[in-house]
Amino acid sequence: MRFRQKAIRYKGIVVFEKITMPYFKRIPKLYQNNEACFMFIDEGAFSVRTPSHFLPLSKGSALLAKCFDYFFETTNKQRKSSEYVELVGILLHKEIIEEIFQFDISDFNHQVDFNAKRIEVDQLLENFKKSILILIDNPELTDDVMILTKLKEFVLLISKTQNAPSHLHFLSALFNKNATEFKSTIKNNLYSSLSIEELAMLCGMSISTFKRNFKETFNENPAEYLLRLKLIRCSKLLLSSDQRISDIAYDCGFESLSTFNRSFKALFNDSPSNYRKNQID
């Protein structure tokens, strides 16, 4: 299956879309143009990795995300749940939102305790999604007035579920990212399979800035520090659980068993299987 997208645009900017794509391992979601989003998961399952959370999402749920960078990624179990992923998205662009509601987002300073959040889809949201799909499948029915009306309807609908003082306060929060401390971002994603480049992106830094901050914070270069802590965790799991060695390696962020075995032996001077056997004996 190939990647497919159907979209409704306002002034050339995608505001509603339906995406169907084959399964993937990890893809970045980069927001560079003041764009928040809401995504219905219509088929399949995947997770969202942010600086502070790892959110599993499945068919029938939805994602509400602020304007920031994160990753979509899948586990082996999620890839087995369906042959593809299908999403219906509502993209909220700052300039369009300010046009609809005739206000300046910077005039409000409302805060919420999330950057990305799993949403359970109720009947009202399900009905809204169906109305959007009709427009996406029949773009000749749309015009600018209808598009702006549907965007306004969505904002009023979703803001009611988020306990904000008003829809304007809710909107301002969507474009006000909560900062995650550098050290916390590293610790929250310590046992992922993120590359150094991907971890830098998650921290919102260039690779050179990331490496410099990492050395200042942990007094060690990132590759050596991350590998050592992953291996230490693996060594503990080998003794405290009966998990298969391959599962332990995967859960601690290693992408291949051969890489794990080689790295483990270099640190502990023993293979994982012998280490488990000898320590238990």
Task: Note down, in words, how this protein is organized.
This protein has 281 residues and is of the alpha+beta class. It is built from 12 helices and 10 strands. It has helices at 76-79, 94-101, 123-137, 144-160, 167-174, 182-188, 196-202, 207-218, 222-240, 245-251, 257-268, 272-280, and strands at 4-10, 13-22, 26-29, 35-43, 45-49, 54-58, 61-65, 70-73, 84-93, 116-120. Strands 1-2-9-4-7-10 form a 6-stranded antiparallel sheet. It has a 4-stranded antiparallel sheet with strand order 3-8-5-6, with no helix packed on it. Strand 5 and strand 6 form a beta hairpin. Helix 2 crosses helix 4 and helix 3 runs antiparallel to helix 4 (144-160). The radius of gyration is 22 Å and the shape is elongated.
Brief descriptors of the model:
single chain; 281 residues; alpha+beta; Jelly Rolls; Arc Repressor Mutant, subunit A; 2 domains; six-stranded antiparallel sheet; four-stranded antiparallel sheet; 12 helices; 10 strands
The domain tally reads 2
Helix-strand pattern, N to C? EEEEEEEEHEHEHHHHHHHHHH
Strand order of the largest sheet: 1-2-9-4-7-10
For the secondary structure, the number of strands is 10
Q: What structural class do helix, strand and pairing data support? A: alpha+beta
- CATH class of the largest domain equals Mainly Beta
At the fold tier of CATH, the topology name of the largest domain is Jelly Rolls
State the shape: elongated
Distance between the termini: 50 Å
Low-confidence stretches: none
**Helical segment count:** 12
Strand count, sense and closure of the main sheet?
6 strands, antiparallel
Which strand-content bin applies to the residues? 15-25%
Mean pLDDT: 92
By CATH, the architecture of the largest domain is named Sandwich
Radius of gyration: 22 Å
Helix content: 40-55%
